[in-house]
Records
---
Amino acid sequence: ASRFQVVELGPPIEVFQLNKLCVEDSYQNKVNLGVGAYRDEHGKPWVLPVVRNMEKQMAEDATLLHEYLPVLGMEQFSAASVSMLLGEDNPVIAAGRAFGVQTLSGTGSLRVGAEFLNKHLKATTFYYSTPTWENHHLVFVNSGFTNPRSYRYWNEKTRAIDFDGLIEDLKNAPENSVILLHACAHNPTGIDPTQEQWEKIADVMEERKLFPFFDSAYQGFASGDLDKDAWAVRYFVKRGFELLCAQSYAKNFGLYNERVGNLTFVISDAACAAAMRSQLTWVVRGMYSNPPAHGARVVANVLANKQLFDQWRDHIKMMSSRVIQMREALRAELIKLGTPGNWDHIVKQIGLFSYTGLTPRQVEHLIQEHHIYLLKSGRINICGLNPSNVQYVAAAIHDAVTK
Ligand code: PLP
């Protein structure tokens, strides 16, 4: 008998299970709208040319070694990440009131930030939007947050933000609660607050002394413009909030499996930074000791060179425009077919995802009958669409809706 007999099978992770089902499906016209990664117009993963070139250059560079990085990672990388998020001339940078820590992509960033807040500020209550990225809950609970709460975000009927619900829930949140906010391109709904709505959110959070923890997994992907997509974070900084922001380079650099991320801290007193950094060193030391170098070097080198940076910005523009085109194409096809319902939300939503409003039964129908894979919530990854499959997908949605 094994001592491991006590271990029970855990539930599958929906998005990975769905991906596996799709990979194993031998149907020629299958479509993967599940996985949260960019696909090009042929449905293939895309390595950004600026990344590929940098990797080639790095492969030839004999000065690059496999020595350990410092526990908090590459300083040049973190400094560039903080500038990208806050804008390089943001006064908080010059004042020493902002610093970054290299982390294991966005997830690792959230994890380190949450553990730090739990350990050092004794934070135990956090709020996430309903719905949200399905990992937020687990990451915070594993970091010691014993009181997970949610705030309303999505109104199923109007297919828009439930803004009154959101404000009411924040007003009722206990002081010092950590409020997880999507910096842009909300996952899974694709709907962000307007600037006026962000201002009201900031008012309530200030009044109620709530702590903002931004999750920025899609900077550049929402509008194609890095500065526009950082508006909300920069606005909160301008209002004088102290905050954390988890940044991921998975999507905007296409570096999914390299685990490249940064955790930015903005604080009101520069004198606190040294102690915070020393304690962050211990958080990371006990978690994974130090981060990997490859992806961070790629990003740091691209961000540091004007010409490469411009190339990268063009890549982001290209990816985000393709997504926008596919949104329009899908909506146009559904209108052409006369599919019952209003499909305007598909083009109003931004970022990689669309919350289609399809029911679990319709989703099941799409998977079983049409080999189109999407999450039970009806979330689709728009860049799973391309000019060769968008008609097929629209016809299948039409079939599912009219069944
Ligand atoms: N946060 C959100 C909202 C996301 O959608 C994702 C990825 O899908 C992440 C964080 C973290 O991703 P990663 O850890 O791959 O950077």
---
Amino acid sequence: MVSMETITSLCKRRGFIFQSSEIYEGLAGCWDFGPLGVELVRNVKEAWWKNVVHQRDDMVGLDASILMHPQAWVASGHVENFTDPMVDCMRCKRRFRADHIDGENCPNCGGELTEARQFNLMFKTFIGPLEDEASQVYLRPETAQGIFVNFKNIIDSMRLKIPFGIAQIGKAFRNEITVGNFIFRVREFEQMEIEYFVKPGTDEEWHEKWISNRSDWYLQLGIRKENLRCRPHEEDELAHYSKSCVDIEYLFPMGWSELEGVASRSDHDLSVHAEHSKKDLNYYDPVAETHYVPYVIEPSVGVGRAALAFLIDAYSEEEVAGRKRTILRIHKDLAPIKAAVLPLLRNRPDIVQLAREITHALQKEFVAVYDDTAGIGRLYRRQDEIGTPYCITVDVESLDDRAVTIRDRDSMQQIRVSVDRLVETVTEKLKS
Ligand code: ATP
């Protein structure tokens, strides 16, 4: 398995991910997606949205604000309970999350640790010019509560019938005690969350369906089966209202870790918001002719964490003709660049012109780039390393036969295609 250092270095070198504010020594737990990273992340979100919203009849989308009424976080229990236990080393002064360390002593220097204190992970800020308690609000630590507080707006405006779900992608902020493993645990991240509302009594069946639906999504996008597993939470890991929770885990370089949580949360969230807001959040079931508070299934994943898993799983090194070839065998839907057009001779204006024309034609359909900054061997290697599925070379013969070569990233096989059929051919290949 590839090491996290190798992935981190590839991501920096090839413009996927940079440390935030790097020229000022960086800001811990914050990362910036560079030119290729932003394309990858857009593709991850697009693939998710297509799968859970556009290709289903029972799902709708939402984009709620990051700042919410502070009472929403009192009702949800985050003000009181969204805490992690924190310990400090009395010798080296390092700080740790108590439930992330084994044994009684400091994992860094073996020193004595303080008693664990509960630390609330929500970032606070203020609305308006006065920085007092009355104006204090939170940067949301999850997108889910924005969905619950809009439950009534959505059923009233969209005339939805249970079972149905609401999906949302958006930023979340957590003042994590410790961050690390590259973008695995960060303080500012994007989440992709679903709240799927069901009739009480059908929740177990829907929980199972969502676990398998979400696991399949990773497999369809190329994650290897042996690197994905489901782990049900132990009794003592569950919140008191939670009926059950299953983590979809990925075999990251540091070991099996949570990629996505799929929780079955009963009617807890809607009930507490109904109680605190004094609004009726019951659902009238026209089939059963009765009112009830729906139960909810919540699949929740971090965009960056998913992108990291896709990168790790796609990374491979192989030897071709005695030379190392680094290749990102990432799914075509996720690849930041779909095709690169490479002129064989960059000092021939007629070849360059044809290559530029071809690039512009391809760019109307998908992300395509032109590159003539090195010899063909090096250009191929660069595109392999960033996972570009197809390289198109324009050579001297192309001027006569109006045909170009398409090289496949994975098999390195080449086919000759007429320029007139190029866009169509590559589009078809990207879909297959
Ligand atoms: P942990 O116990 O590891 O702190 P959690 O169980 O509280 O995490 P959830 O609240 O279930 O995490 O978050 C849902 C998903 O959001 C996670 O599966 C993960 O993909 C993502 N996520 C949560 N916290 C972070 C973070 N600090 N950095 C990156 N992604 C995160």
